[in-house]
Design goal:
disordered C terminus, about 35% helix, 34 strands, four-stranded parallel β-sheet, alpha+beta, about 850 residues
Length: about 850
Amino acid sequence: MKNTYPFKKIENKWQKKWEQEPLFKERSVSEKRKKYYLLEMFPYPSGRIHMGHVRNYSIGDVVARHKVMNRFNLLHPMGWDAFGLPAENAALKEKVHPAIWTDKNISYMRGQLKKMGFAYDWSREVSTASPDYYRWNQWIFLKLYERGLAYQKMAAVNWCPQCTTVLANEQVEGGNCWRCGTAVESKEIKQWFFKITSYAEALLNDLSGLNGWPEKVKIMQANWIGRSAGVEICFKIAGEDETIPVFTTRQDTIFGATYLVLSAGHSLSAKLVKGTKIEKKALEFINQVRREKLNKTAQTEVEKRGIFTGRYAINPVNQEKIPIWIANYIVMEYGTGAVMAVPAHDQRDFEFALKYKLPIRLVIQNGNNSLALEAMPEAYEGEGNLVNSEKFSGMDSSAAKNKIALWMEEKKIGKRKINYRLKDWGISRQRYWGTPIPIIYCEKCGTMPAAEKDLPVALPKKIEFAYKKGVSPLVADEKFYFTPCPKCGQKARREIDTMDTFVDSSWYFLRFTDSKAQKSLFSPGEANYWMPVDQYIGGVEHAIMHLLYARFMHKFLSDIGMVETREPFSNLLTQGMVIKDGAKMSKSKGNVVDPDDIIDKYGADTARLFILFAAPPEQDLEWSDQGIKGAFRFLNRVWRLVNFPCRREVPEDIAKNLEGVLKRKLHQTIKKVTDDIERFHFNTAISAIMELVNLIFSFSFERPKQGSVLPESPIMAESLRTVVLLLFPFVPHIAAEMWEILGEKETVSRQFWPEFKSELAREEKVTLIVQVNGKVRDKLEIKAGLSEEEIKAKALTQERVRKWLANQEIVRTVIVRGKLVNLVVKPGQQPNNDQEIKDTITKKQ
């Protein structure tokens, strides 16, 4: 055998065998073994897998193979989040149909995943762009529509006046159109929404039961849902019947409201200035603010800017007219998008009022009664006694909140309300490559859902991309666009918006439980057996949108009787990013490492080993070329160990001691690796295997000495077999080959996980003679099985040894395991106290 293992030959051989092996395929719900549903977030078929994919799927593969070796009934599927904007952009740029582009990418990426040796049940593979899949998106839409949870309303979109088209947020770059560079404007059109706010309370409350989720993810979701109790107050627009609802948690400050401020995205912002002298200027300001938001400019960091609408609102508690402003520091994402500004008690309002010379009124006095407007350097946002608040003056501000809320309800000028930062889920996308929304518009009968029997409402295959006309490409296909009304039979129109791709990924984990189902989106029996997902793995960047939408959809499907569980994922692991040169890998930064290059040069197992060993999964991983080489060297070392078995001569007494040390280390390693895999501490698990390999090497390749022959000892053979079994989840190709080389007939995939025996792992003590230049200076009692570095370190802690090493340079350390450690120093004058040391040793004996 060659010293360097032939990874290309080995990996090709075993990947072909695994294609035929049913180990990870078609698990049955009737199996008596305990089920385990393992899932990594499925990828978008962008064309090539990247190191982020390799890390995510390597983590999952370790868990998958470990569970199979522990005889779990494993479900480990893979599929493709195949709809989306990049495919449509490619269609425009490359003149290729999105379906062709997507299918080509899926084929290539599937091959890459197989080259990595990832163990998936490919018989359950799904593509969300398949009509067999997205027909069930449409079915879910109809069920939501029946229950009033899918609805249509006017909402602001990104509009490019040059291209005369709606843009997704991803198509807005620096506030400009990605295609032509024109400044993007805000425009209101009708869009479809899912009423996720109806589930806000359940989504928030049920977080407490997700014990297997990272705390940071639960906090992120709780903050996004953003529950707050307060009062919704209606401010009448002066001279009109229309009102502006405002939500506040500080109703105790209502008498200090000196102006009303709207977000740029509020529906009244443009309406209030329409036909006025400032209309053009105000609309320019509104669009500028919107572009800043799209450019991800933090609202708290930008200079606060605003424009007066020329209109006034009536404060309902004192009938005072207050000006209505539009400002950049108010966002639509909170409350109603309108805020009663109380500059004395809100820092943002305070800064804005100072800049535009707006009134500031003190209505809460601190406990020292020391606040004076002319001396206030900043807003006072704490509690205290109400002042300038009519009949509520003198009350404690905290206690006054409830009394003011009750008073407002009595006067019918406000009502207590629980508000959520969470907004309803806008699912309309003005694109072709997505799930068609199953709605029909008839001039006679109005808006109607498509009939279930007519699903799927399929995307037309031949399509002309007519974005320049300012409408969806679906309009260009008359056979699609026009359809008989399901009620009256007259000519009607289909909805031309398609669904947000987050809809596709909000329930795909359920489809995997029964991916071939034809009469339903999945069989409830299959879903109830497999769900919830026992372990879900993916990036923390999906903590809000995807994970929140998936929880919402699962609860809805549970409510309509499709699945019994209320939460989709029992345990969640959010892995860190792969970074290089201090930055996340990206083409724009020029720091991308192509997995294919690593596979070609070092093999898939090397890539897997490095990425699992370099850092704990939840932390960012810094790419290292030296780390890759180190992983490759280790695999070659194990390869040589298996191909050149132990045949060496050692004294009989030492041989007996070595076997005991190795057996103990073996069972300690089994326990360590088992526990660490369960905790996702793959780096320390691999480190433990490396230590065991080093110990085997130290016993196997020392120079022959006179004495009895110890050919292929049983513990050595057991240790080698165990190393291969422990390595299999991490580096399956080389492990499978080495298992075969060791003479095993049944593949390593079908072996049981090594069994840990606690009685064999117990530490034993050994006594070593400590020498300096061959002369006995002390004795040392240590745990058996320590490494040579650890033994040397222990010896150097001995006070009498240090005395003999004073001002001496250690040039060599000789260790005879179970016997002695000899510290060799440069010749020179040493303390003359041999008799003292001998007396000490005699006493110890």
